[in-house]
Amino acid sequence: MAARALLAWLATAALAAVTAGASCGGVMAQQRIADAGGLVVTARAGESSFDAPAAPTAPWAQVIAQAAQDNGLPPAFLTRLLNQESTMFTLAVSRAGAMGIAQFMPGTAAARGLDDPFDPFKAIPAAARYLADLRRQFGNLGLAAAAYNAGAGRVSSWLRGTSELPAETRDYVLRITGSSAEDWAANRADASAISAGVPARPPIVSPAVAATTRVLPAVPAAAAPRAANRAERGRASAKKPTAEAELCASVAAGGRGCILQTAY
User: Fold this and answer.
1) How far apart are CA 38 and CA 52, in angstroms?
2) Could you state, in order of their start, the residue ranges of all structural domains in the chain?
3) Which one of 27, 49, 245, 261 is least enclosed by Cβ atoms within 10 Å?
4) 80-114: per-residue pLDDT in tens?
5) Catalytic residue flag (residue 246)
């Protein structure tokens, strides 16, 4: 009899617990903390944290596309970077304190005028503007991604040869762009080289990138009249290329082959 009474009590207690959980509207579920890949994923009140990470094309595809267009970035590059940062989870918080879909640190968010890193409609455009600024500072998308991850100061020191680039950042750049940070650094062109339409150094790419790129056909220098070449150089100087593809096209038109980066 005592055993039967104990079983009845346990069943009643279990039913009460289930009922209480349901009446709370899944509060415990909303407060769940999932530790995966260094991210502590939390949820605000009233929002579920059980949703699977969004695919790179949803649900923020339109916001990403517009932010990329407004800042001259390839949408695929911005999509991959955000997916690498947070798997598109808008409420992600890292152990270091980086917040939201674009993983802004508090100091960086304040410096960039971002008042709510957890709002993707604010964070995604802010990330795109920041990346565009880093691209102008360092010369290409790969180094911009490195600076976004490790900080502009760390990347500048690495380029000067006074510090190492963290392994995490090297992997980050490779995953997003398909090329190593060293490849991007080797292809960094200074302002005078860009305005003249010639690369500062010969193109160097990793095997992974070479396998997924197309080569623009080189125009033999002897095949074009010198006057045409001078005119082409003048046009290249008048309009400074603003993207890797534009730089590549101007180099090819000047009689040099060029590898056009297609794997972002």
Assistant:
1) 17
2) 189-264
3) 27
4) 999 999 999 999 999 999 999 999 999 999 999 99
5) no
